[in-house]
Structures are given as structure tokens and as C-alpha cells.
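SEVERITY: medium
COMPONENT: batch folding queue
REPORTER: lab tech (J.R.)

DESCRIPTION
The queue accepted two submissions in a row. Attaching both inputs and their returned C-alpha cells so the on-call engineer can compare them side by side.

ATTACHMENT 1
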Amino acid sequence: MKHPIKFTTPEEAVKVIKSGDHVHLSSVASVPQVLVCAMAERGKAGELHDVKIHHLHTEGDAMYAVPEMEGVFQLDSFFVGGNVRKVTQAGFADYIPVFLSETQRLYRDGTLPCDVAMIQVSPPDRHGYVSLGTSVDATLAAVECAKTVIAVVNRYVPRSFGDSFIHMSKIDIFVENDTPLIEEHFAEPNEVEKAIGRNCASLIEDGACLQMGIGSIPNAVLSQLTGHKNLGVHTEMFADGVLPLVESGVINGANKKINRGKIVSTFLMGSQKVYDFIDDNPGVLMKDVGYTNDPFIISQNPKVTALNSALQVDLTGQICADSLGTKFYSGVGGQVDFIYGASRSEGGRAIVAMPSITNKGISKIVPVLNEGAGVVTTRAHVHWIVTEHGVVNLYGKSMQERARLLISIADPSARESLDRAAFERFGSHHYYIKNSCGM
């Protein structure tokens, strides 16, 4: 059965947007770029004002967030990606702190209105269903709640399984544009990242269910797992690094209790190879973010091993992951969702991994977080911390014990000053005696 579509132009489609509307954009590689361009042109022409834009991390030019669009568009993102970081830090855009698991809830419970959802989908199948492809996340909720849904039908969008299918009848306006999805090619890990990868891999057991993001450190970890058996994946995102382990049978999901044998994610970003991998692949489930990132869903699988990162860690174990002092750098994301979920999992391990120092030689393990820095993961949530210098577990440890453990994996150039700061902070002769004894 064929389902003919009446297409319109991007310029005609975005005429539905009115001043004061809230507009959701699908995320990461699935941003409907032709609609963004057409919407921005309306803004330049003076046809719109006070249009609020919402999205997770996006790729490509965010032309609605440039200073020249102040008063026309207001970006209130759920995550500060690299393409909007400078304008957010400069005050031309803003950020809504929210657990990734609850981004969908902002729409579903009416906290945020959604007047227009602008999405990108695969061509319809013979039953009239299109797929959200690489990004389900909060976009499915936006589609459910939006007054108007505009969809770019793009043959390069993979037909993914899970919660990604939408019937054509749920879409109000169709635009056709066959532009390849934006790809991300990650650099090979450097020596520090390889050392972090080895240290993280030492914590991953056979049969573990993995959550890890995208980038050099996750790829470095994955490259160390070729000798493992029966690994699973339940994550919020993945990239090319998992593919060799799937092809070799290391990742097979055999030990999972829910979605056994399936890779579960809510969005992904990588090369065309990973987009091809999920196309028509029933072994990959692209699920609603309210499912993938629900700690009580996550914890149902055994040996959940969650790998996240940090910008700073203080000597008590507080994790700053979203800001550099008062400047927002990224977002809360799914870190707390997965750290809590992994810690509740039978045999689970929650890991925060990072280089011990920045590219400028500044220690990332600090006496206190920078003024204005936000605590994403509390000292009560934290478990394993990994740097290139080692692995420590802070769970169940006192403040003084935590300080000693963290100093042991700090960069050697920072250890003396950290030790002095710890002694001054805790004001304890007991700390000094235990530290000098190597306890």
C-alpha cells in the first residue's frame, strides 16, 4: 500500500510558526536543517519575535541563537552543545537544567508548551509509518504534544526500531529534503586517554551492561574490551566504537534481563557506518528517553556499568559536569540517571572518568569547586573515580578517606598542594597521621 505525501517547501512550512510560539527541534544529527534555515530567514525579515526554541544537543549551525537574533528567537536548551556554548555563556541564549530522563516530561506534563515540533524522519513504509531514526529522546514527546508537527522526509534517515515510529497521520506538514546526516569522526585516543581506557576496562566484568557516551575516552575504553564476553548495551547514546564489539560477538546482550539481546539507546552520533548499522536493524531499539534514562529501568539489568565524565571533582567527591565556574559548558544530561541506575543494579558500577589535568595543566581534582560551579553528581551518589593515574572507589568512605584516595589519582604536580588543602580543610591531626602512614 502506497501513502502519497503532499510536500511543501521549507519556506511555506515554517509560516505556521507565530511570534511567541515554543518550537522544538529534533536533536544531534537529526536537526531539520532546511527548516531551521527557513525559520531564520523569517526572523531576519522581521516576521517573528519572541519565538522560544528548545532542544537537546544539536549539530550544525544554530543560526537562531546568534546575537543578531536577540528578541526574535530565544533559545532555552536542555543541554548546551558546542554550537551554542559561546552564545549561552554570553547571555544570548539560556539553559534549562533538567535530568535527561525528564526532558520528555517537560512536554508531557505541560511544564513547557510545544506549539511546533520540527523533526526529520525516514520515508514512510507501506503501512504509513515513518521513523525518527537516530534521535528519539524528547522528540517523541514533542510530537505527541505539539499543536503542529513539521517533518522533513529524508531518505538518509535510517529506519530504526523501538519507539521511533510515527504514523503519517500524526504529521501536519511534510517537506522533502535528501541531505546526508551530519557525521562525527572522533580522533584516536591519546596516551592519557588510552591509560584512562585501560583503567576503566579493569572495572568492567564479563556480562556487564554498558552505558557510555561518545568521544575519545569511551572509544578508548571500548577498544580494551575485545577479550570480554557477553556484554550488553543500555545507554542514552552510542557511536562507532561499539560496532567492532558487536561484529566480534563481544556485545551480544546475552546477560541482560530486559531487552535481552538488544542494544538500547535514545540517540546516537557518529559516522555513516553507525547510521547504516541501525537501519532496519531489529537488534537496536531507539527508545523514548523516559525509558532509557529511568534509573529504575536501568537498574533492572545486572552489572550495569555506567561511564561518565567530569569537569572538576572536589576532595569530598562532588562532581561538576555542566559548568566552568559560572559559565555553562554542557548540561546535567544523563549522568545522574545512570550513576543512580548503575548503583542500584545488582553488581553494577558507576564510574566517572577524566584526565587528571586540563590541556592547560590545571588539576581537575580540586580542594573546592570553582566559585559558581554546579554540582551535578552529589558526594552521596559518587562511586568510582578514574584518571590516567588509577582507580578509586569513594562509596562508603569518609571525607578524609575520600581526600586521600582522590589525591592518589591526581596529577603528581598537584598532589602536594591538594594534600595541604585537605589538611587545612579538615583541620585534623588524625588526617595528617593517617596520610603520612600511607593509610
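ATTACHMENT 2
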Amino acid sequence: MSIHLFGIEFADALQGASVHLIAEEATGHPSYGTEIRKGMRLAKYVQLKTEK
């Protein structure tokens, strides 16, 4: 779920970037790029809550 949240939070900054390359550099797993992309697609439908 953290990968999806990353995609949601940074969706604007990640536009046009190779999410598979970012995922591989960050985790060693390029397939996580698919999960980041899912979060990016969800970003326009959800809003992250902040803890109080």
C-alpha cells in the first residue's frame, strides 16, 4: 500500500518520468512501477489525510 500512496502523493511530479526506472532504483524491483502508476491514476479521485 505504501507504493500506491507514493504514487498518489507525488503523481504530479512523476508525470512523464519512467516509474519502472524509479522503482528499480529505489527498491530493486522494476515491477513496482506498475503499482506506482496505479497510485498516480488514483490521485485525481482521492485525497490523502494528514495525521493529527
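NOTES FROM REPORTER
Residues 2-42 form one domain.
No errors were logged for either attachment.
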